[in-house]
Design a protein that fits this description.
This protein is α+β, with helices and mostly antiparallel strands. It has a single domain, classed as Alpha-Beta Complex (tt1808, chain A). It contains 5 helices and 12 strands. It has helices at 17-26, 47-66, 99-102, 124-137, 187-191, and strands spanning 6-7, 31-35, 38-42, 70-74, 79-82, 85-87, 91-95, 108-109, 114-118, 142-147, 152-159, 162-169. The strands form 2 sheets. The chain has a 6-stranded mixed β-sheet, sandwiched between helices. It is globular.
């Protein structure tokens, strides 16, 4: 049976930020997100998801550290985009100039410059639709969707209030657009 990111609330019952924090504490083995007052819970990710996350984190973090660019963080970490919107992206990047402003005691308080979501059967629809719209609305400059099944990375760049596709990268490709284009990230190294 395939599990999905399921809402825990109904339209009539909106959850406050304080109630959300309690749910996070009550469900330490799940990803708990607050999207416009509605709580979504996803199961722990599969091993392949975590391997891809580890590989991508290593690649980006090496480049960021070597060039003193900022901070790369990975799930679970809450990103509070609004009072009623707290997401837990798989990976995010905050540039040096925004670190003091965004890194809070409990969460990232505002839009990171880059957010990465790795698709899984339980979150693919959620990541491609709900989160894509939310990340654009709240000003995340760059959004990557990593597709393990097709071994692809879709790169979206904020253009006004919506995203435009900046590139779709497949096996043997190297990322040539976006904030990390100078890092020369080869797609195969993400899925190795």
């Amino acid at each position: 049976m395939m599990s999905t990111a399921v809402p825990l609330t109904t339209e009539k019952t909106k959850v406050t930020y304080t109630e959300y924090l309690q749910m996070v504490d009550d469900h330490p083995d799940s990803r708990v997100e607050l999207l416009e007052g509605e709580v979504f819970m996803s199961p722990a990710p599969m091993p392949i998801h975590q391997i891809i996350l580890r590989n991508l984190t290593r690649l980006l973090d090496r480049y960021v550290e070597a060039n003193n660019l900022g901070e790369v963080l990975f799930a679970p970490v809450g990103v509070r985009l609004a009072e009623d919107v707290v997401v837990q992206p798989d990976l995010l990047f905050i540039p040096q100039a925004k670190m003091a402003e965004l890194i809070g005691e409990q969460n990232i308080e505002g839009a990171p410059s880059l957010v990465v979501e790795i698709l899984s059967p339980s979150t693919a629809h959620h990541d491609r639709h709900n989160k894509l719209l939310l990340y654009a609305r709240y000003g995340v400059a760059e959004y990557w969707i990593v597709d393990p099944e097709n071994k692809a990375v879709e790169l979206y760049v904020l253009d006004g209030e919506t995203y435009r596709v900046s590139g779709i990268y497949l096996s043997e490709d190297t990322v040539t657009t976006g904030q990390f284009a100078p890092a020369k990230i080869q797609i195969d190294t993400i899925f190795a």
